[in-house]
Amino acid sequence: MIPLVVRPAAQAAELAALLRQHGHAPLCCPLLETVAGSELHRLPELLPQADIVIAVSVHAVNFTHHFLLQTGQTWPNIDYFAVGQASADAFSEVGIQALSPDDPRSEGLLALPSLQQVNGKQVLILRGNGGRDLIARTLASRGALVHYCAAYERHYPALDGDALTCHWQAAGLDSLLVTSGELLQRLLELVPDQQLPWLHDRLLVVPSPRVAEMAAAAGFTHITIAQGASNQALTAALELRKME
């Protein structure tokens, strides 16, 4: 298959390499760039106080870990949680075992038994600039003291949507691997209105029911939900559809 990979460049390259190993011919077009967050300097203050750390994405783990290495600090011996398997895998790569839900959404994380009794606990959420606040609001309602740290920031590169769409069509693009609602929205904004019916007819692989619902509302008709946002999960979902 000829899937479109829209993740930030470093992640896109890793996913594309795995897809090629499975016989696919991916096209890479990073729709998002990530840089170190403006609140990383607060980690020496926030981490020692935390009882629980929650990472909402791979970027949150990686940028935090890089900052800790640069400043000679270490991850404390506390409880760690990740919203999805990809983030849990990122924690594992830096030597931390993090709990993650089978349902890779904020709702799935909040349903974990370990996060029900958090009254008086200090919770640090590692995330990008902005994003959903469901986790913080819910844990605060359970009595937790919640702090955010913007570990990374998102930037959108300037792209020529007309030219890119023409290139994708000429290349025979047949599928899309979109790992967040934000990336889905960016893709929809990029493709010219007159080409949206073509886009909606591509196979779309997403990491969660929430993104699937957004995609269906936008007009996509061939949607597959992967078992999370990891490269392995996305590739496995594409492999299953290839065999149908």
TrEMBL record:
<keyword id="KW-0627">Porphyrin biosynthesis</keyword>
<dbReference type="InterPro" id="IPR036108">
    <property type="entry name" value="4pyrrol_syn_uPrphyn_synt_sf"/>
</dbReference>
<dbReference type="Pfam" id="PF02602">
    <property type="entry name" value="HEM4"/>
</dbReference>
<comment type="pathway">
    <text>Porphyrin-containing compound metabolism; protoporphyrin-IX biosynthesis; coproporphyrinogen-III from 5-aminolevulinate: step 3/4.</text>
</comment>
<dbReference type="GO" id="GO:0006780">
    <property type="term" value="P:uroporphyrinogen III biosynthetic process"/>
</dbReference>
<protein>
    <recommendedName>
        <fullName>Uroporphyrinogen-III synthase</fullName>
        <ecNumber>4.2.1.75</ecNumber>
    </recommendedName>
</protein>
<dbReference type="InterPro" id="IPR039793">
    <property type="entry name" value="UROS/Hem4"/>
</dbReference>
<dbReference type="GO" id="GO:0004852">
    <property type="term" value="F:uroporphyrinogen-III synthase activity"/>
</dbReference>
<dbReference type="InterPro" id="IPR003754">
    <property type="entry name" value="4pyrrol_synth_uPrphyn_synth"/>
</dbReference>
<dbReference type="GO" id="GO:0006782">
    <property type="term" value="P:protoporphyrinogen IX biosynthetic process"/>
</dbReference>
<comment type="function">
    <text>Catalyzes cyclization of the linear tetrapyrrole, hydroxymethylbilane, to the macrocyclic uroporphyrinogen III.</text>
</comment>
<comment type="similarity">
    <text>Belongs to the uroporphyrinogen-III synthase family.</text>
</comment>
<feature type="domain" description="Tetrapyrrole biosynthesis uroporphyrinogen III synthase">
    <location>
        <begin position="14"/>
        <end position="235"/>
    </location>
</feature>
<keyword id="KW-0456">Lyase</keyword>
